[in-house]
Amino acid sequence: MLPFEEDIKATARISHQIPEQDDEELQRVRALIRSLDPTGQRFASVLRDTIDQLLNGEVTGRYDWKTLFKTEKTHAGTLVEINLQREFEFNDGVNMDYKIAGVDVDCKYSQQFGGWMIPPEALGHICLLVWADDYKTRWSAGLLRIRSEWLNGGNNRDLKLTVKAEHRNKIQWLWQDAELPENVLLHLDPATRSAILSPSSGQHRVNELFERVQMKRIGRGVVRTVAQQYDYMARVREAKGRARTVLRERGILIPGHYSKHQAVARALGAPVPEAGELVSFRVVEVKPHHGDRPRVELDGRQWVLADAADPVEPGPFLPKHTAA
């Protein structure tokens, strides 16, 4: 028996007898996390930002997880752990990563569902198990009190174990198979992606992005990767040669997450950008054939979403906003 095993078994012996639904500590942790993030939007944003941080598109132009180096992929779990703690201000744990609701909790991330590597010292403790897959655009996070009988035997040097597939149903899910903010570049067809990324100018690439990818919420990480410039958001703003100004002449508007911009998207029935997101769509002034199509008043005129049959015409200015 290895030196640490007696202590682990002593710590875990009592918890092994507690049914998951009666585990008062686990339920306290679950309740606190859900109270901090009822919809999971904050959690999903952390995962999106962490993947984008690893890709580092502003410097590298990368948008695909497969292009990461092995060492970068290995570092992903540490970054998820750090970024979740920053977002939710979890206290440091005593023996595990965090202390949540007074309970030690370890954080484990895997890009492969079920691939969480559980260290021996986590036996008897609660683990926050996190999974996100950029290709499936899905993520999950759940809590599990680690029991030795639920783990596969370890054959790696540091004796880390994985949860047996037949026991994953013991995980108390906070969010399961939820929608991950989309990595838009990754999911574009190759021809469209090539047309966006081909221009040598960052400004032209950003213009192509919002002209070619309409009616989709686009995160800042996408803009950063396309622009590959420090002041990437300046490529979008209303100014000579910038995306909002150039594309407005073609009837394309680019609302951001400001409330007045969201109201425009909502009124037209377009996707509504969330925090840190933008969306583009083409509009035309209302004509009789548009019938009762959803509309919005801008610049003293009524506008609707354009369809393929509508001719291109200059669009209105978006409402002014106070930058957050």
Mean pLDDT figure: 91
Helix share of residues? 25-40%
Number of strands: 12
Which radius of gyration do the C-alpha atoms yield?
Answer: 24 Å
Structural class by SSE content = alpha+beta
| Largest sheet features | 6 strands, mixed
Q: How large is the count of helical segments? A: 11
Amount of beta strand: 15-25%
What order do the SSEs take from the amino end to the carboxyl end, as H and E? HHHHHEEEEEEHHHEHHEHEEEE
Shape annotation: elongated
Terminal residue distance: 58 Å
Outline the low-pLDDT stretches.
Answer: 1-17
Largest beta sheet: what is the strand line-up?
A: 1-2-3-4-5-6
Plain-language structure description:
34% of the residues lie in helices and 17% in strands. It is an alpha+beta fold. Strands 1-2-3-4-5-6 form a 6-stranded mixed sheet. A hairpin with a 4-residue loop joins strand 4 and strand 5. Helix 3 (41-55) runs antiparallel to helix 5 (70-88). The termini are far apart. The model is unreliable at 1-17 (pLDDT under 50).
Question: Mind sketching the topology for me?
Answer:
Blueprint: H1 5-15, H2 24-36, H3 41-55, H4 57-60, H5 70-88, E1 91-92, E2 98-100, E3 103-110, E4 126-133, E5 138-145, E6 172-179, H6 184-187, H7 190-197, H8 202-212, E7 218-219, H9 220-227, H10 243-248, E8 252-253, H11 259-268, E9 277-278, E10 281-285, E11 296-298, E12 301-305
Parallel strand pairs: 3-4
Antiparallel strand pairs: 1-2, 2-3, 4-5, 5-6, 7-9, 8-10, 10-12, 11-12
